[in-house]
Write a structure and sequence with these properties.
mainly alpha; 3 helices; 77% helix
Amino acid sequence: MDDKTRTAAGIAAGLQGIKYDDKRLAELAAEVQVLNDAVRQAAAERLTFDDDPAAFASLMEREARK
């Protein structure tokens, strides 16, 4: 089990009280990575370090409506 899959397992078990088999955990880790990469890319292209924190939420809302 790689680090990302272990992280998914820890979140599922520790925060949600859910246990998945190794195959599903690997799938979840891959899905989260795709989503995380998309969010980071969208934010990097449109936000700067000095932007108001609310700008991030606003950006995510706008992107979700596309």
